Amino acid sequence: TGTVTKGKPELTDIDVVQESNREQLLGWIGSAERNSEHPLAEAIVKGIQGQGITLPVTESFEAIPGYGIVAVIEGQQLLIGTRKLMGKYEVNVESALPKMSSLEEEGKTAMLVAVNGTYAATVAVADTIKETSKQAVSRLQSLGLQVIMITGDNERTAKAIAREAGIADVFAEVLPEGKAIEVKKLQAAGKKVAMVGDGINDAPALATADIGMAIGTGTDVAMEAADVTLMRGDLNSIPDAIFMSRKTMLNIKQNLFWALAYNVIGIPIAASGFLAPWLAGAAMALSSVSVVLNALR
C-alpha cells in the first residue's frame, strides 16, 4: 500500500452479521481505526464517517503489527484484522471465510471484525495500482533486475496486485520483522538487495537491505531508515535513480582512466627530457580540465 499502489484506498464492502446493530458496529469500527496509523485505517474511518455515523470514544487501543488492532469501546472488546488475529483470540470465523476469499480474489484487502470474541463483520478496502507501477517494473526487469513484492497483505490480494503490476515473485502475509528476514535470505543467496518502501512496517527491511529506498510521500520513519529518498511517489524514480547511479559510476571510471593514462604516459616522457616543463604543466592543466568537463556531462 502506497508503494506499488496509489496509497489512497477506499472502503468498498461492509458485510455485517446482524443488520439491526449495523450503525452501532460501524461506529465502533470507525472509532477503533481512528487510532491506527495504518494507511488502510484512514479509508475505513473516512468511509464510515461519510455515512453520517458518529464515532464514540475509544477506551483502550493496541495495534499488533501484522495482525490488526484490539480496542475497547463502550465496554466492548473489538478485534479488527487478519485470520491470524482471530486465531490468536480463538474467534470462530469459518462462516466468513468464503466471502473473505472472494473479496481477496478481487484484489481487495478484507478484514475480519469480532466483538467480545464473536465474529461480527467483514470489511474490505481496495486500492488501485499507480499508473506508472507496471511501466516501472518492466523497466527494472529490462535492466536485468529481479523484482520481488514483499507485503503484509494476504496472499490472494497480494497476487492480484502483483499480477496487475507484472511482478512474478510475491511474499505475502509477511510481518514487519519478517520483511527484514526475507531480505537477509536474499543476501545470504549472494544477491545485492535494494528495498523500496514507504511505511513504518518497511523500516526494518529498509535498514537491512544493501540499499534502502524510501518513497518521499511515505512516513518519516521509513525515510530515516533508508539510504535514498525518492522525492516523488512515482515508481519510475527507481529505474531513473539506478540509471543515474550507473552513469555516474561510468563517468567516475572514465575520469580515473584518463587521469591514470595521462600520468602513466606523461611522467616517463617528462622525466626523459622530451617534454619542456611549461608544456608538461599545460598538459597537466588540460588533463584536469578534460576530467572536469567529462564530469559535467
Automatic annotation (TrEMBL):
GO BP: copper ion homeostasis
Where would you find this protein in the cell?
Membrane
Catalytic function, reaction form: Cu(+)(in) + ATP + H2O = Cu(+)(out) + ADP + phosphate + H(+)
Q: MF terms per GO, please? A: ATP binding; ATP hydrolysis activity; copper ion binding; P-type divalent copper transporter activity; P-type monovalent copper transporter activity
Q: Write down the EC number.
A: 7.2.2.8
Major site of localization recorded for this protein: membrane
Q: Which GO terms describe its cellular component?
A: membrane
Query: Could you list the residue ranges that cross the membrane?
Result: 255-272
> Which keywords annotate this record?
Copper, Copper transport, Hydrolase, Ion transport, Membrane, Translocase, Transmembrane, Transmembrane helix, Transport
Among InterPro entries, the record links this protein to: ATPase_P-typ_cyto_dom_N, HAD-like_sf, HAD_sf, P_typ_ATPase
Entry-linked PANTHER family: ATP7, ISOFORM B, P-TYPE CU(+) TRANSPORTER
| Name this polypeptide is given | P-type Cu(+) transporter
Organism of this sequence = Cohnella luojiensis
Q: What is the lineage of its organism?
A: Bacteria, Bacillati, Bacillota, Bacilli, Bacillales
